[in-house]
Amino acid sequence: MWEPARFLLFSSIETMSAFALMLAIVRIKVKDYIWPGLFMSLLMNLQSYLLRSETSVAALSQGISIILFALLLITVVKIPALWSFGLSLVVTFIYTIIQFTMLKTLFAGVNTSTLSTSWEGSALQLTTSIVVIGVTYFLLKFKIGFTREFDKFRFYWLHISMMCLLVCALIGSMIMFYMNDLNLLILHMIVMTGMLLYYAVKKEREED
Predict the structure, then answer these.
(1) What is the C-alpha to C-alpha distance for residues 124 and 127, in angstroms, rounded to an integer?
(2) What residues contact residue 155 under an 8 Å CB cut-off, 6+ apart?
(3) pLDDT at 121
(4) Do 67 and 97 touch, CB atoms closer than 8 A?
């Protein structure tokens, strides 16, 4: 009884902090979308809890969460599909990199194979979420982020190629999760995050 409650509580903190960071990147405050965010968070964490016991499909959980995040941004926040998937991927990658850093520094002696079912894993989720919330506050406080007018967003061939890159990044991430090679996964996420942020900054400067 306590295990599902523990998992859902700390996973919800985790997903909501990630959602807040997604919105902060485009200078939107999460308080305007708390209830839709919590509802989607519950869906994500329920499917994650159900899938984690099935090793053969556990790798799909992260990919499904990214898609659900993107759908939330598209339908509720009204952000175009390309930006929604880009934000979902970038923040997922950033969150994973931060969590990996926390794991290696503060939880170095913890058995990683039992993290998902232990209180140490919950502490790792909470610590990472606090750091991400701090980053979110910093972005909003100093008005750092993208100010693109989404209704003027148009598809050029470069945008189409970028969508292909996002799909490849998603597929690549799911493969890395399936292979369960943490170091290779982090390297993949760092490279893809760098590429996606470079593209976003480049387009922002072109339109200034």
Answers:
(1) 5
(2) 82
(3) 86
(4) no
pLDDT of residue 126: 94
The per-residue pLDDT for 5 is 85
What the block records as the tokens of 56 is 């053969």
At 71, give phi and psi (nearest 5°): -65, -35
Tokens coding 141: 């406080």
In this prediction, the residues of the chain whose per-residue pLDDT falls under 50 are: 55-56, 153-155, 157
Q: Measured between alpha carbons, how far is residue 108 from residues 98, 118, 119, 132, 185 in Å?
A: 14, 15, 15, 20, 18
- Other Cβ atoms less than 10 A from the Cβ of 199: the count is 17
Tokens of 173: 């991430």
pLDDT of 133 reads 96
DSSP string of 80-131?
-HHHHHHHHHHHHHHHHHHHHHHHHHTSTTS-GGGGGGSHHHHHHHHHHHHH
Q: Domain ranges in the chain?
A: 2-207
